[in-house]
Write a structure and sequence with these properties.
It contains 19 helices and 23 strands. The chain is of the alpha+beta class.
């Protein structure tokens, strides 16, 4: 996330000052490119790994600050939420045994992290989106206590002007509203870096754009959000919408999200991207501008270009250009941000090997990929891969449409192999990591498919929260075993650790698939709905899903009993029998508290609301399920 001390650019003078620093940095970079001050002829790779922290019940654990304090290690740092962490791996020369060294780095850092996490009684999980994550976990209280995150949230909210609205359609539909940037913390990734020379930047950046779709299709691991089955890589849609400051207008004005794939091929240099981003996107954060880049260049030293790097860190291209200084030398690299975290370390390195191999092979095979396919087709490939994974169809360099699985297995893995061998990567390592990828693609068992298949395997068992906890627990257990996801057995319900942790809060088991009516509907409609769907309570809500009343089966029977002998018009509105201002609770209410509320008020249905809007209901039937579980458990104990 960059400079953690950066603040929001609030004042006009502050914004102007920072903009001047930003423009100076771009001019300084142009000068460095002209003078040959950027490192050339060196190929290095690197990676950043983001993780979730979970508690003993497999739900998010906001313990990042405590774990970091325990670690006290410079490679580990915060992420947006207190239940996320990130660690950065030292760069490696791209040659020989670099892939196995990358795997050892990942394993070593994960081991350090797991040991520190265990001391805080939490676990570490590699997953694109945590299955057990609930919307209530995205409260600002769970935001990491760093100035940058608060400043970023305030700046984005100011630009947006309204709450964020999310619409993602998959096997299920997700339509949800949130009031902060915290939804971005649902995503964790495995970001890989590829150092390039200035003269080859445009060529290699375009190749990175081209190969991103098949890379993503082969590595999806984020199909579930809030229990909904959405895209094969839901991170793509979620991240774009969570940082989107665009507003709906009545005119067809072009506007680009701060998270985006791009609009066109790059023609000459990295300056095209930096200049376009400065021109298009307002400054959100401001940091200290305490260097004169031109003075530093005159001394033969590379400046840090802090303003440029800070602004670049608030624009989220899926392939992001990066400037850095290592050992007194400035360099450029391409950061690929599409690979999700997990499913295993071995899978992560296999994904990296596939990407690096394609970058090398395509750069030697094709002089200019931009002349072979229209950029719009490449962008469409990317979105198709995010939605459908290995079920995608890609328009490729030959102008033909290819099934993703066939294209990857028959053309791209052999090309990646050729590229890695061309760089003198150890043939045994090439076989190992690309073999893992090939087995995954041939079997179609990506992380996403494993998660979805596991849900099917557990269908009809337990409650939804229990199944999601089993997915998380199984992911942790299998990651520790070290096997690639193509060899994973489906998650088992018993891995969740029992039903109890998944009944702690009402949001974990409340009914969200609701039948509702409005105040203007008739009681005859209500009676039929109750009969057809075998339900005993129907909430009454307005057009904005605000709860305005509740109708019970008992109140309906009483009304018809009182009016049985009368010939009365059956188009009577539900306002005649509904209960105004019903007792409600928020979603994070404990189950014990909810039971106490229902007993105190002698009610059989408890609506769950947030800011007046109906989210779900808890009924007596739900507690009968709990009682059955308890009874079965007690009877087993006595056997």
């Amino acid at each position: 996330m960059g400079d953690l001390t950066a603040g929001e650019a609030t004042g006009t003078e502050e914004r102007r000052r920072f903009t001047k620093c930003l423009l100076d940095d771009v001019r300084a970079l142009e000068m460095m490119l002209d003078q040959g001050m950027i490192e050339t002829g060196i190929r290095r790779i690197g990676a950043e790994q983001e993780v979730f922290l979970v508690n003993k019940t497999w739900h998010p654990a906001p313990k990042a600050m405590e774990v970091l304090q325990d670690l006290s290690h410079p490679d580990f740092t915060t992420e947006l939420a207190r239940f996320n962490l990130e660690f950065n791996l030292p760069p490696l020369d791209f040659s020989s045994d670099c892939l196995s060294r990358l795997e050892k780095q990942l394993i070593g850092h994960l081991q350090l992290l797991r040991e520190a996490a265990a001391r805080q009684e939490v676990e570490v999980v590699l997953t694109g989106i945590l299955p057990t994550l609930a919307k209530s976990d995205l409260d600002l209280a769970n935001m990491s206590p760093q100035p940058r995150y608060r400043a970023l949230n305030e700046a984005l909210k100011q630009l947006k002007g309204t709450d964020y609205e999310f619409r993602i359609v998959g096997a299920d539909d997700l339509i949800v509203r949130h009031d902060s940037v915290m939804l971005e913390s649902c995503n964790t990734s495995f970001q890989v870096h590829f150092q390039v020379s200035p003269s080859e930047f445009a060529h290699l950046y375009n190749i990175a754009q081209l190969v991103t779709a098949p890379l993503l299709a082969a590595s999806t691991n984020s199909p579930i959000l809030f229990g909904k089955r959405l895209w094969r890589e839901t991170r793509i849609a979620l991240f774009q919408q969570s940082i989107d400051t665009r507003q709906v207008t009545s005119h067809l004005r072009e506007a680009r999200a701060r998270v985006h794939f791009g609009e066109r091929w790059i023609r000459e240099s990295v300056l095209e991207i930096f200049r376009e981003d400065i021109a298009r996107y307002k400054v959100l954060l401001a940091g200290e501008c305490n260097e004169d880049p031109f003075e530093i260049i005159s001394q033969g030293q590379p400046p840090k270009l802090n303003a440029l790097c800070l602004h670049n860190g608030t624009i989220y291209r899926w392939n992001r250009p990066c400037y850095g200084v290592t050992d007194g030398k400035a360099h450029l690299r391409i950061e690929n941000r599409v690979i999700p975290a997990g499913p295993s370390v071995l899978d992560a390195v296999a994904n990296a090997a596939f990407y690096f191999g394609m970058m090398i092979s395509f750069s030697s095979e094709y002089k200019d990929v931009s002349k072979l396919v229209d950029f719009s087709e490449v962008a469409n490939n990317f979105l198709t891969a995010a939605r459908s994974g290995l079920g995608a169809q890609f328009t490729w360099l030959d102008g033909k449409i290819h099934p993703a699985q066939k294209l990857i297995c028959e053309q791209l893995i052999p090309m990646a192999r050729q590229g890695l061998l061309h760089r003198n990567i150890d043939p045994a390592e090439v076989d190992r990591y690309l073999g893992v990828l090939q087995a995954r693609v041939e079997s179609c068992q990506t992380g996403s498919q494993w998660l979805l298949d596991s849900l099917v395997h557990m269908k009809g068992k337990g409650v939804r929260g229990e199944r999601l906890a089993a997915l998380t627990a199984a992911s942790v257990n299998r990651q520790k075993e070290g096997l690639p996801v193509s060899e994973w057995e489906p998650a088992r319900l018993e891995e969740a650790g029992g039903w109890k942790p998944n009944y702690m809060r009402v949001e974990q088991f409340m009914t969200t698939d609701l039948y509702t009516v409005s105040k203007e509907d008739t009681i005859d409609l209500v009676a039929n709905m109750m009969n057809w769907e075998r339900i005993r309570h129907i909430p009454v809500e307005d057009n904005e899903h605000r709860l305005v009343g509740l109708i019970s089966y008992r109140s309906l029977l009483k009304y018809f009993g009182d009016h049985l002998s009368r010939s009365e018009d059956q188009t009577i509105p539900v306002t005649r029998i509904m209960k105004d201002k019903p007792i409600t609770v928020p979603p994070e209410t404990s189950t014990v508290e909810a039971m106490a509320v229902m007993e105190k008020h002698q009610i059989g249905c408890l609506p769950v609301v947030r800011k007046g809007r109906l989210l779900g209901v808890v009924t007596e039937r739900d507690f009968m399920d709990i009682a059955r579980e308890l009874l079965e458990q007690k009877l087993r104990e006595k056997e």
